[in-house]
Amino acid sequence: INLPKTDFPMKANLAQLEPKVLKKWEEIDIYKALLENNKEKPKYILHDGPPYANGNIHIGHSLNKILKDIIVKYKVLSGFNIPYVPGWDCHGLPIEHKVMEKLPKDTEFSEIRKACREYANKFVDIQRNEFKRLGVFGDWENPYLTFEKGYIVKTLELFKIMVREGYVYKDKKPVFWCKSCKTALAEAEVVYKEKKSPSIIVKFPYKDKFILIWTTTPWTLFGNTGIAIHPEYPYCEIEHNQEKLIMAKDLVASVMKEKEYKVLRDVLGKELDEQYAKHPFLERESKIILDYLVTLDCGTGCVHIAPGHGIEDYAAGCKNDLPLICEVDDNGKFTSGIFEGEDVSLADKKIIEHLDKMGMLFEKDEILHSYPHCWRCKKPIIFRATSQWFINIDHKDLRKRIISLCDNVQWIPDYGKNRFVGMMEARGDWCISRQRAWGIPIPSFFCNNCQKSFITEKSIEMAQKIIEESGVEAYFNNDYLFDSRLPISSSRLIISCPSCEGCNLTKEKDILDVWFDSGSSHYAVLRDNQKLSWPADLYLEGSDQHRGWFQSSIITSLAGFNCPPYKAVLTHGFILDEKGIAMSKSAGNVIPPQKIVEKYGADILRLWVSSVDFREDIKIGDEILKPIILSYRKIRNTFRFLLGNLYDFESPVSYNELNLIDKYILHNLQVLIENVLDAYLKFEFHIVFREILDFCTRDLSNLYLDILKDRLYCEEANSIKRRVAQTVLYQCLISLVKLIAPILSFTAEEVWGKMQNEGSIFFQQFPKPNVNYKNQAIKEEMEEIIKIREEVNLALEKKRENKEIGSPLEASLKIKTEKFDLLDKYKDSLCEIFIVSEVLLEKGEGLEIEVSNHKGIKCPRCWMFSFTENVDGLCKRCDEVLAYGKFTK
């Protein structure tokens, strides 16, 4: 008999196989070879959002890069030229913090930068190898790195455009400030976590009364210069303990609680407007203003305004000419006053005690609320007014243009657009300066004559020239280039103050926010690169980038070129453990991707990525991986069966030679191809996974391959019947291996090699549905027969349980059915479809199935029962096959 022959092993041993495939790809330089192979085809640019070059990759990195790789390979197999340039974000606090763990606090900035560069280079190499181990294709030898001088020069070029267009300004205004990291933070660098804070109601003396304000940051009272009330809300004056108190009328009950009080009169907002209350413990007045920022959600309806310690406070202060007072240094300590030198966070208790002693504390409590924390050190941050460089988000209607042009971008999932737009509407101006060592310098100067800071196109061009010729350290370290006290010579660059034209300048030391670094990548990497194209076809990152990289990229792109840098934005969720808890080292639930790869292989991780709807948050763990491993085995065993029965396949037969079940499988294969290609197009990889797995199990393993075994093993090797089966099996194999290649890249390459094909599966193209193989009538007829087959299987199983028969081949079926005409039409195929030795048909109502033992003789070759006269007990078919074999031999 024709037993399967293949050296494609049942057990994958992926951890041992995959390095061999990687070596093959390296030998043929697969990435460059694919670019050359597809060079005349249309480009598709997936622009890589740069991860930090900080530590080994984690499971989130794996999800992100595997998703990108699936898309790259899907596009390659779809006939696109898809250059994919990976990148790394090499600047910023994550790296500087790690480096400073081993350096003295007073280390020179130049030494810090040197250590940061070495650290970043180290982890670029480590992460590059880890990504390659996942089977990710890309230009790994030429990635973009944000600390390289070419990238820095291009970033400064985009910055220069924004300076020229008037988007960049310097101002003293409150920003997110991390007193632990001693730097300003961007909105994207802030995370909100629950924090227990004091909750106090304070009395501000006003004439013979008190205005009540509520705050959870008592330390900001030192910066108070105003009290805001709503212009339309009703207020009232009440009496309590012989004191007259003013607050919002609708909040009296919640403020007074069990206290006794008497309402004296209503108070109108205009009565209080432009009046002055006294500060509760400082020799200062607090101006009463009308502002719509007041809400009735909590508090007293009278809002304490400290313009130096809040964005809304700052805006209200600007509108009403309130003084901006911020007596807090970089370390978060008071610089003057009764608590000079105290940490603001630790001073709250003393301030409350002081208020109580002064008789100005009305009530104290604690509150658990959402509070901003530094994304890096995880500590609470403060709002603090400092002089910083900003991008004006409303200059030249930039915010409105961004929101309007969002309609031109495809958002996947579509609710990402509303999320993004909401964040753009709510955000403030972009604070782009940082007070750290490791980053791109801001070419700004301070004029010692007129006491003003400035950036000009010329100052940026000068910085670009120095960096391009001598590297960024030359700009950071060589202050003599700009020292006006030195004689004018070719070694000194002359820059003058745009306000007074003076040359007595001091170079400032702020660096650019790292989000500006990465937000410039569309320009630095794509725009002037002929091998790539701008704007990118796709950005793909985690959903947190709606307020991070997606924002910084579109702000710089529209400010510079009035066009979004991306045509589509695809987001994925976050990784959770099996219990749905976010992974963290402190929780001890982190699963390193390296361990999964070492134990199971990268293809298992890739299959898991494809199996989930990645647009939502995703769980992973050992129990979740178990069914993924089982699914992999089903797909692998399908490939093994197909390969094993095609070892001698040479010439396919025409479609007309196929019988019912063969045509049915070919029809379903075309539907599979259509559905999979549609799912790839929509980035619905979980549907790709499910469609392929279902076809392998439902259509092939549980049906067609089970039915075919007799035909494949027992028919004469070159018979039409066997070649029909092989024709269909080959179509299934060639289609499946191509369709699954973007996901199971290593396994697909292994299968391709066993098909005796040279090169790589990725030089091929996806199969296209063959309309000539689609036959709805065949589908409907076969599905009716499959329903009957299911009933037959139940009847056979019952007989087996009762030990009346052993193998189904021992059975003779008598089927009485209203579907007689359909079954009779395909009567020659029924024994094969039902896997029995005899089927007798009779017309009737409904469906009746009678199972009995076949009365014939069991063929020792195929085990079918028949009424044979052969002395060896061979059935007619096997007798003829063996006779033919002897004759041809």
- In round numbers, the mean pLDDT is 92
Flag low-confidence runs: none
Instruction: Count the beta strands.
Output: 32
The helix count comes to: 28
Strand order of the largest sheet: 11-9-10-7-6-15
Percent in helix: 40-55%
Radius of gyration, taken over Cα atoms and rounded to an integer in Å: 37 Å
Secondary-structure content class: alpha/beta
- The rounded distance between the terminal residues' Cα atoms is 15 Å
Fold and architecture overview:
This protein is an alpha/beta fold. The chain has 28 helices and 32 strands. The strands form 10 sheets. It has a 6-stranded mixed sheet. The chain has a 4-stranded parallel sheet with strand order 1-24-25-17. Strands 5-4-16-18 form a 4-stranded antiparallel sheet, with no helix packed on it. The longest helix has 30 residues, at 685-714. It starts with 13 loop residues before the first helix and ends with a helix. The model has no long low-confidence stretch (mean pLDDT 92).
Features:
single chain; 4-stranded parallel sheet; 889 residues; alpha/beta; 6-stranded mixed sheet; elongated
Summarize the structure.
With 889 residues, this protein is an alpha/beta fold.
Topology (SSEs and partners):
Layout: H1 14-27, H2 30-37, E1 46-47, H3 59-77, E2 87-88, H4 93-100, H5 109-133, E3 144-145, H6 149-164, E4 168-178, E5 183-185, E6 190-206, E7 209-215, E8 226-229, E9 235-240, E10 243-248, H7 252-256, E11 262-267, H8 269-272, E12 276-278, E13 285-290, E14 302-305, H9 311-319, H10 344-358, E15 361-374, E16 382-391, H11 398-405, E17 410-412, H12 415-426, E18 430-431, E19 433-434, E20 445-447, E21 452-454, H13 457-470, H14 472-477, E22 505-507, E23 511-512, H15 514-519, H16 521-527, E24 538-542, H17 549-561, E25 568-572, E26 575-576, H18 593-599, H19 602-611, E27 618-619, H20 622-644, H21 660-681, H22 685-714, H23 720-740, H24 745-754, H25 776-801, E28 811-817, H26 820-825, H27 827-834, E29 838-843, E30 847-853, E31 857-858, E32 865-866, H28 876-888
Parallel strand pairs: 1-24, 2-3, 7-10, 8-13, 17-25, 24-25, 26-27, 28-29
Antiparallel strand pairs: 4-5, 4-16, 6-7, 6-15, 8-14, 9-10, 9-11, 12-13, 16-18, 19-23, 20-21, 20-22, 28-30, 31-32
